[in-house]
Design goal:
single chain; about 325 residues; alpha+beta; 10-stranded mixed sheet; 3-stranded antiparallel sheet
């Protein structure tokens, strides 16, 4: 079976990823997609995605499954991080929508201008310039399609800029946090499908992230109290079995969550939204010349000692680094 590996940021170790439902996804995106297009389209639609989510995440654990913790251990969930008592986690959905004590276990960088990761995820970062070796453009998403073809102001603002793609696997903490401080100038939804974000699915379907349903939030950081990195677009992309993206911004821990709207001021590192569960993707877009990514992320991307399905499928070095939410991603220029 074809493996997929990533780099652990803390020590540079190369690890194998256990891809949830990998055989089913590979079958769906090869045999079904090629021989039964109607069935493939049905499986990646909203109704099928919602049904699969209910089947996988809403059925109660059998007879004190939580007691032996095998399910949680297999998912790599650290109960010591969780904000709620262990008795709260009675269904897989509650596990995947868990809250953590991020104020203790996900500290912010000391540099107040640092741009931070929006999620516990595996990230690849680079440029939207078509000459960049990463070739982000035309692989993971079509830039114009991602933001919406009618959003000409934002298309002009981010053209030729930089991008980072964060892949949240089903076992991850599924709250997204604000990567920067600033004022929301636009927030809107773009309708679409529910393609899986399994690496094999991404390679098989051209520009899948700009075909899936998504929420786009544009933040102006060049305001008093802002990070000072220009405009930043945060795109939250659904995937197979993700039923919804709920905007739940909180200034203090998870208290008094509220939806964002133009004019809202957001603080770096605070909870912004929640995926209803499964795997999903965050994409950050930056204006040209306004940010520089952490050198370790760029170096890891080109490592040749890692088996990546992205590298094999796109024929270029493309290795992900596992990052923690609120950890350093980039600095303003």
């Amino acid at each position: 079976m074809l493996s997929h590996q990533y780099v652990r940021r803390t020590d540079g170790a190369v690890l194998d990823e256990e891809l949830f439902g990998d055989r089913v996804v590979r079958f769906l995106y090869s045999q079904v997609r090629e021989n039964a297009g109607w069935l493939f389209r049905a499986c990646t639609g909203a109704h099928a995605s919602a049904w699969l989510a209910t089947l996988n995440f809403d059925l109660p654990f059998a007879a004190k499954l939580l007691g032996n913790r095998r399910f949680l251990e297999r998912c790599g969930v650290d109960l010591a991080e969780c904000a709620d008592p262990v008795e709260h986690y009675t269904t897989p959905r509650r596990v995947f929508e868990r809250r953590i004590r991020y104020w203790d276990c996900r500290p912010l960088p000391e540099n107040r201008r640092a741009i931070v990761s929006p999620a516990d995820a595996r990230v690849v970062a680079g440029s939207l310039d078509p000459e960049d070796a990463l070739f982000l453009k035309g692989k993971f998403f079509a830039f114009e399609e991602l933001l919406g073809s009618t959003k000409t102001d934002w298309l002009q603002a981010f053209a030729g800029g930089d991008a980072a793609i964060f892949r949240l696997t089903p076992d991850k903490y599924h709250y997204n946090h604000c990567p920067v401080s600033g004022q929301v100038v636009d927030i809107y939804e773009v309708d679409g499908t529910y393609h899986a974000c399994n690496p094999s699915a991404i390679v098989a379907v051209g520009t899948p992230h700009s075909k899936n349903r998504r929420v786009v939030t544009v933040i102006d950081t060049d305001v008093p109290g802002g990070t000072g990195a220009g405009l930043v677009a945060m795109v939250e992309v659904v995937a197979l079995m993700i039923g919804d993206i709920v905007q739940v911004y909180s200034e203090t821990r998870y208290d008094q969550p509220s939806p964002l709207r133009p004019g809202s001021f957001v603080l770096r590192g605070q909870p912004k939204s929640l995926y209803r569960p499964g795997s999903s993707t965050d994409i950050l877009l930056f204006q040209p010349g306004r940010t520089r990514f952490s050198p370790d992320l760029l170096a890891n991307r080109q490592r040749a000692d890692v088996t990546s399905r992205f590298a094999l499928g796109f024929n270029t070095a493309l290795t992900e680094t596992e990052v923690l939410v609120r950890s350093l991603l980039a600095l303003p220029c």
